[in-house]
Amino acid sequence: MKLRKSAEDKMIFLYRYVSLSLTSLVFLFESSRLIVWQKLLLIGFLFLSVTAFTWIYRKYRLHDMVLKCSIALETAGIILLLFPTGGMDSPFKWYVITPMLVACAHLSMRYSWTLLLSYIGLVLTFCYIFFTPGQYFLWDLILQNINLFLVLIVTTMAMQVIGVMKDELKVAKEQANETMDHIKSIYHIMETTSHNEALNLGQVISDYTVKLTKQSRAFFWLDSQEEDAPESSQTGWTVEEEEQLFEELGNYREEFREEREPFFRHLPEWGDFLMITVPMTTRFVATIGLKLGPDQSLTGRRWLVQQLIFLAELSAVFLERYELERIENQLIVTNEQNRIANEMHDNVSQSLFGIVYATHSLRQTWCHQPKEQVEEQIDLIQQSANQAVRELKGAIHSLSSKKSGGSTWLGTVKSHLHTLSKLNHVQIDFDIHGDHYSLPYLYQKALFRIISEAAGNAIRHGLAKRIDVKLKLTPQVIRLSIHDDGVGFETARMVAGGEAVSAGGGLGMMNMEYLAQSMGGEFDISSRIGEGTQIRLSIPVNAYE
What residue intervals traverse the membrane (predicted)? Predict the structure, then answer.
């Protein structure tokens, strides 16, 4: 993994070369027992060594053990460098500040102080033994170099204070980013559920339960068998496991109805769950559940409880709003039906009655009337019939959602893709051919989940900027093609038997394939690194029945 250089790293590495250049310059022009070419050779070796150590510090700055050994080795080299360059009179004694800066920036406080005290102790010992034998007392040597030691101590303290401030800023930045992610997630939920997407409401809740809690598995279970109710959904399990999980949850529906606070539940063969019942006043009873890990701490669980309470309240708002809109739509339909019934009674039925009466009268008298008068009466009957047809068409037009622009499956799909495109800054083109009004509900549900899953994978895992969705509906077969320009992946990473070894979207691919096969269709996926991904689906019509 290639690490980006921080401003702190750039400053430290720049200081290494600048300080070495200045120190070398002083060493080159001062009097010494070494001649010029020996000094130049030594300086060249030092620059090569510094370059090597700098490369190690950059590459292995996340590996504490490698970093500790490298810093200790460079410090030992600086101590040895004092022997040919004058001992405590050597200008290179100041260069030890550079490995100290690296230690303070990337390693613990204990290691930094241990390194500093070891350097001071070793330098004093070696110089006292080899350079000033019997000339000074050790205390005199310390006093002569007190400035160096004070600079090293103050530098170490300053770098550690800066390090503490940096860590606090890092924590604050992470908290700010987490808060922004939380706010964006809430906005996304509100935006997604603002288009009456009942087909996808449960999936939205379970997906964002996983996202906000940073867990791997969650579910939204709605205890309702009514066709107009939102679908129960889950994130993290396969479709086969979903059916078994919801069947298991059905055994506890009476217990769930009585719960008013977050609670823990152990489900045999499924593990430990943190659950909460959505507080609602409608006909629905919904439960949000989160799969707990084996090493979940008490503090972490308290945080998860807070997130679930928030999600439950948010879900209650969505479901109650959905229920109110459903009731409002029913009232609108009822009022419209009454209005149309009155119009048909006042207009269409009267016209039909007049036609019947005129036809009966003409049948009794046509043989005694002139031809011109009979034709005139037939024209009047025809005009009345045409007027009745026009009024009947108007009534049918008012009742038809196909003509009046009411909520349809196609509108739900377009709304969902538009939301994904808007919130993720991705261009999504949806092209459909054929009559989607005659598409059975089971096909609508499966196709919606496949399109939603494929588009979500392309954005989350593929980092796509453009997605093309093409749907062709014929009386014999349904064909779906989804192509994106994302990063792609090697399809060989999807192993036989349905298990995905890749972490990105493998489970979603399995679910899409299962949905296609459950409808009697064929599922094919092709992808290459850097060339995007294409999903092709073919489902024969009426094969499911």
Answer: 12-29, 35-57, 69-86, 116-139, 145-165
CA distances from 480 to 10, 469, 473 (A): 52, 7, 9
10 Å Cβ neighbour count for 118?
14
pLDDT value of position 467 = 94
Distance of CA 212 to the CA centre of its chain: 10
112 near 157, Cβ under 8 Å? no
The residue type of 289 is G
pLDDT confidence of 227, banded at 50, 70, 90?
A: low
Neighbours of 494 (CB within 10 A): 20
Quick check: 5 and 57 in contact, CB under 8 A? no
Write phi, then psi, for 263 (nearest 5 degrees). -145, 155
Q: What is the pLDDT of residue 197?
A: 53
Please give the model's pTM, rounded to 2 decimal places: 0.48
Identify the DSSP state of 232. P
Q: Which of 156-170, 235-249, 308-322 has the highest mean pLDDT?
A: 235-249
Task: Report CA torsion sign: 438, 444, 448, 451.
Answer: negative
- 3-class DSSP string for 475-522: CCEEEEEEEECCCCCCHHHECCCCCECCCCCHHHHHHHHHHHHHCCCE
At a CB cut-off of 8 Å and minimum separation 6, what does 521 contact?
478, 537, 538, 539, 540, 543
| Angle (deg, nearest 10), helices 146-192 and 109-130 | 160
Calculate the average pLDDT of the chain. 78
Tell me the CA distances in angstroms from 146 to 81, 95, 113, 122, 535, one per residue in order. 20, 16, 17, 15, 73
Given a contact cutoff of 8 angstroms between Cβ atoms, the answer to whether 265 and 275 are in contact is yes
In three-state form (DSSP H/G/I as H, E/B as E, the rest C), the secondary structure along 325-364 is: HHHHHHHHHHHHHHHHHHHHHHHHHHHHHHHHHHHHHHHH
Backbone angles phi and psi of 40, in degrees to 5: -65, -40
What is the mean predicted confidence (pLDDT) over 496-521? 65
Written as six digits, the tokens of 62 are 């996340």
Is 533 exposed, middle or buried (CB count within 10 Å of its CB: 0-12, 13-18, 19+)? buried
| Residue 468, pLDDT above cutoff 80 | yes
Q: According to the model, what pLDDT value does residue 405 have?
A: 46
pLDDT at 46: 86
Helix H or strand E encompassing 256 = helix 253-258
- 279 φ/ψ angles, rounded to the nearest 5 degrees: -75, 110
| CA 110 to chain centroid | 39
SS3 36: helix
Identity of the highest mean pLDDT range in 192-196, 284-288, 315-319, 524-528? 524-528
- DSSP H helices, 400-500, are 401-404, 409-424, 441-460
Looking at residue 165, its amino acid is M
Q: Within 10 A of 495 (CB to CB), how many other CB atoms are there?
A: 11
Q: What is the Cα–Cα distance from 72 to 55, expressed in whole angstroms?
A: 16
- Rounded to the nearest 10°, the torsion over CA 238, 239, 244, 248 is 80
